[in-house]
Amino acid sequence: METVTIRKAKADLSRLIQKACRGEDIVIARGKKPVVRLVALRDAQGNRKPGAWKGKVFYTPDAFAPLSDRELKDLGFE
Q1: Helical H segments across 1-78, by residue range
Q2: Distance, C-alpha 23 to centroid of its chain
């Protein structure tokens, strides 16, 4: 567990947030007295599951076909 003063926490906040996101305990102290613990939200810790979108996203075979002149004009490319 890393303990830092408020002054050091202000100067190194980005680094401390990165550490907290990796699951490290960060305590911020006023002088030598601990007053706050910096913790990451559960979603911020990278709890993603590979393949969660499998079978939910698809495209039709014509998705990569060239656009017609009408479609290009509607999109403002003409």
Answers
A1: 6-11, 13-21, 69-74
A2: 14
Q: For residue 76, what pLDDT band results from cuts at 50, 70 and 90?
A: very high
Amino acid 62: pLDDT: 87
Residue 27 to residues 3, 7, 15, 18, 62: CA-CA distances in angstroms?
A: 5, 13, 13, 14, 55
Across the range 1-19, mean pLDDT stands at 94
pLDDT of residue 37: 95
Q: What burial letters (b/e) apply to 21-39, b meaning 16+ CB within 10 Å?
A: eeeeebebeeeeeeeeebe
Q: Where are the domains of the chain?
A: 1-41
We find that the CATH architecture of domain 1-41 is 3-Layer(aba) Sandwich (3.40)
